[in-house]
Design a protein that fits this description.
The chain has helices at residues 4-13, 58-62. The protein is mainly α. The longest helix has 10 residues, at 4-13.
């Protein structure tokens, strides 16, 4: 058996260490970012529903309620409720 520190050293010597390169965004499909990209503004610049889904009151569900009334529809891309 080898010590944990030795095993760690062996693993680190064999890790794949990717390089980085600059390229057009259109050619970057399937690539991994070398650093985070932070937007300088929201887009779109107003609230939008980002996905379809449902929301229910958790307390009611936890108490056994399984039938809920649809209060409204907000499909993906629609302006959010005020």
């Amino acid at each position: 058996m080898i010590r944990v520190s030795e095993a760690t050293s062996i693993i680190q010597q064999h890790l794949f260490k990717p390089g980085n390169e600059k390229m057009a965004l259109a050619k970057a499909t399937g690539r991994i970012l070398a650093e985070p990209i932070i937007a300088d503004r929201d887009f779109p610049p107003f609230h939008r529903a980002s996905m379809d889904g449902i929301a229910i009151q958790h307390q009611a569900f936890a108490k056994g309620q399984r039938h809920f009334t649809v209060e409204g529809l907000l499909p993906a891309g629609a302006p959010s409720f005020p």
